[in-house]
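#onboarding

Welcome to the new folks! Below is a worked example of what a typical request in this channel looks like: someone posts a single protein sequence, and someone else replies with the predicted structure as tokens. Don't worry about understanding the tokens yet, we'll cover that in week two.

Example request:
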Amino acid sequence: MSNLLTTFVQFITSSITRSENILPNASANIKSDHLNPQDSQLFEALCQFLWIQGDPLPLIFDVENEVYTKQGITRASLKHLKSLDLINFEINGFIKKGFGKHTRLFYGGKPTKIGFQNDRNNYLDLGHVLLTERGKKLAVAFKGSRNQQFYEYVIERWFQQGLVLSSIQIDRPPIIGFAK
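Example response:
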């Protein structure tokens, strides 16, 4: 019994030592995932357009819009990311169905509440891009930078679609006085 306990302790100790040797580099391996530096930089640029609603959702509505193109996200770059199995790119776009009266999406860790016109069976346009499983795993490793212009672009788009929005993220100067 003593030998069995000793063997077990040695096994656990060696397993812990191996994991300590592996884990420090694990996030670097996930982040690079065999992407060359240019591909990694392109994917990181895409990550600034991620909203979270369960899964990360890159909201790419109009690939010609300057909010995307000035960050290097173009039709050609999206096709390239698709060839790397990081995204699905569909010219006709994607929608998410089955929403109730309200839902909440997060951008930069902060919520935006969306109110729909109907009580049920609502949908949300997700744009032309969805992450693949590989893309979702990589997106976790990238800390997407926040893009206020993009955020306001999305809010304006949703507002024009008749959605009722509530957010703490609109970057507007404070009102100092009241009009008389």
